[in-house]
Design brief:
Length: 184
């Protein structure tokens, strides 16, 4: 069972930092969420997987995955815990840059055209990373059902997904840490 308070505590202890940062979106921020410190922690991976599986409900999509490298430990945790629960689901990885050797795939894993998938993400700011993943996944013939993230910074990501017809669901938002979204 998902323990939201335990995840908030773990993120606060291991991933939340204050200072001057430039985010992947290019935005400046007074705080940073280094969720790899949580997704690559056994307790964190377990909490995230249980929370995401609860949010995904039944039936599960065919697969979950997202942009390498941030989504990789999330994908691994979700498919591992689902397997322990006897709930079949597969994972995939979306390459940031096209592979120039082998089969040249942008999407790797046991998925095929027509599969229904959910994109997973650690932190959503503007949604740019997941939107790029969606483009590559759809080009591979997969059907995206939505985006599931650990934390929403509440800085336009949900609106960017909605404008493209996708729904963002998250385990947490920055308000869970007493932080209000940036107004600039």
């Amino acid at each position: 069972m998902y323990d939201k308070q335990a995840l908030i505590t773990l993120v606060r202890e291991k991933a939340l930092e204050f200072g001057d940062f430039t985010l992947a979106s290019g935005k400046k921020a007074s705080f940073y969420l280094d969720c790899r410190r949580v997704t690559l922690d056994s307790a964190g991976a377990n909490l995230i997987a249980h929370g995401m599986l609860e949010m995904l409900g039944d039936p599960l999509p065919d697969a979950v995955g997202g942009m390498a490298i941030g989504a990789d430990p999330i994908t691994a945790a979700v498919i591992t815990v689902a397997g322990q629960q006897g709930r079949p689901i597969r994972g995939f990885i979306v390459r940031k840059e096209s592979k120039t050797h082998g089969k040249g795939r942008d999407v790797e894993g046991p998925v095929q055209a027509g599969d229904c998938v959910v994109i997973v993400e650690d932190v959503v700011t503007t949604g740019g990373s997941s939107l790029r993943a969606i483009e590559k996944v759809e080009a591979a013939g997969l059907q995206v059902q939505g985006v599931l993230a650990i934390i929403d910074r509440l800085e336009g990501g949900a609106e960017a997904f909605a404008a493209k017809g996708y729904t963002l669901r998250t385990l947490l938002t920055i308000r869970d840490f007493g932080i209000e979204p940036s107004t600039d």
